[in-house]
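Forwarding the complex inputs:
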Amino acid sequence: MALAKTCMKWLSLAARLRSGRTRLHGGLRLPRNKPGLPVSGAIRSLALPPQLILPLLDYRRDVLTPRVQPGQQVEAGQRLAPGLIATARGRVVAIEARPVIHPSGKSALCIVLEPDADQAHETACHEPLSSLTAERLDDCGVQGLGGAAFATADKLRSARQGDAPLQTLLINAVECEPQIACDEALLMCEAAAIINAIESLMQATQCRRCVLAVENDKTAAIDAIRHALQEHPLDLELVLLEPVYPAGAERSLIRRITGLSLPAGERPARHGILSVNVATALAAHRAQLGYPLSSRVVTVSGEGLPEPVNVRVRFGTPVAEVLRQCGYSAASGNHRIRANGPLSGFDLPSLQAPVTASTNCLGIHPVESLPAVLPCIRCGACEEVCPEQLLPQQLYWYAQADDLPGSRRFGLDSCITCGCCDLVCPSSIPLTQSFRHARDAQREQARQERMAELSLQRYQAREQRLQDRAAAREEKRRLAKAQLNTSRDPIADALARARNRRKPHASPRNAASQPSASAPRPETPATDAPEQDNPPEDRSS
Amino acid sequence: MMSTLLAMVVFVVTLALLGAVLGWLAASSGALTWPRLARRKAAEANAAVIEPGAGDTSIDPLAEQDELPTEQLIERVNACLPQTQCAQCGHPGCRPYATAIIAEDAPINQCPPGGEALIHELADLLGKAFVPLDAERGETKPPQVALIDEPVCIGCTLCIAACPVDAIVGAPKLMHTIIIDQCTGCELCLPPCPVDCITLVPAEESLAQWRWPKPA
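Prediction (whole assembly, two chains):
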């Protein structure tokens, strides 16, 4: 008995050690500033604006091709472009450039939709399914609501086709950034639905282990989940983490849950892990029930508001409209609006930009002058807080010198631009911005190399074509010349050739000449037309 | 009696300890190899990324040059060139210029689209001295694309024949248009146009191309 007990004790200790709840390296304990949460009742849905603006952009910011035209009436959930669905029933008024949520303040092509009245509630537009499929996720336009807005269907597909079978389904409810509480609100208000959603995802992925990760200071949310689990028992591991920023970053969370260090740029699906945000899991479940993903919970917090709130916003609602409905008055002071959190977010240049799937928070901050940037004093504070264990102070020099190979050696690809280093730097050096600049420079260089490769291919193809054509012409000329030399009576032959040439044209001339005049060489429009010095083949023979 | 019991207990505890340690080692080896493997993979990936960069190739360029056959050297030089195919260097394309640099010892400062960055890169690669861009060949311009004023176009196909990368679509007596994504802004379509309906406009920076400004 004693032996069994001892063994059990040691085994459990070994198991605990093995599962490797490694601590997050660095990070910051920040004052939470979580807004007043709707503890009871549902999250308030905002009214539909007069116009919904849906950017024709995918998660990489590449432009999508619209499948509708201005003036067309569309249904809620109808596909407007690959990966973009109509978030309400209405009429397409325009497809034009409008400002979008982006740090550059640039405009992008958007579909402007005038929604019909009486659509306060979202309606199902598909039949409910017994199990979740990637096609249904595509049809319902489900994308990641954690920030990257990656298509969930692609994630599910790659998890199924991954090299390894799916080991771990990781539901990420770690909202580590201060001032954001949209996932917390969801956990509190829709715990039962979330448990159902997790169950359907577990069934769809056939995973061996399912983990729901939450910070341990979200007590009300944890209670709600525990209560829902009592009513609906599920083989779900509830992992409580210390509230350290950036604990919710995907790679560090996977490292802590599974003990697996993913290299930068590697998809977790290749290692048998599917990691989804909790709101995405809920959206996937709603897609299974037939509802398209057309809204999300957004935390609106900061100065100039009667109270910080979590509200449900239809995609395409302009930021100005969201703030107005939340009771923000611009007259209350000089403010800047920051999207996606105070640390990893960015200031919005235009308030007419619409809310999209990646907009989790709108923060209202006072406009303050930036502190003067002082030289680096090599204190190493940034290095201590970096969750990816990089050397930000070193990376900074390479990034500022535009040395991309050097930046890569110092982990530019691993940087998650969390902004911890900025916050602790005593010299107020904008480290993260310089890393972002270097990363964009690297992406632009790769794009230019791709373009150069493409134009080289086109150039080579054209050279080859011109050579082939010249060779063929030469060959034909040679053959004709040879024939001419062997012929006994060249004049009679030429006459015969001329007669033969005239014959096929003689009778149908009127009928045949008309189409040939209107469409002179329809099969080779671009590539074969230009040979001006190329005499017609008939003449050369 | 008591001592026998104690001895038994001690024996059992030792066994259990040994078992636990062995079990943990066996189990943790899995957890340990993964990160190691991952790290090694990352290091390899990093090395692969860094290798073609200018920094590593410039260590001993002359020694390398002797070993590389001419054809491969031409390829290396061609890979550095911007592939605009604009012929401003006096050669009919980027590859002919690369061939001339290697085979005929042509100067490396003849490519305006590549600019000073390219001259530095070629100087490093070939072990030559840096020379400023030859001003007679033209000046380095920001990215640009051709634009056809479509109502004016008479459909003569002359620009189509001139385009080195087949980036113009059209047919005789029908309107022509530029495939903007494939236009290199080489300006070769300008001289043949009989109605001067082609202009070069600055290439528009898309949202995906936007870069965070460098902090001062």
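Residues 130 and 288 of chain A are 8 Å apart (CA to CA).
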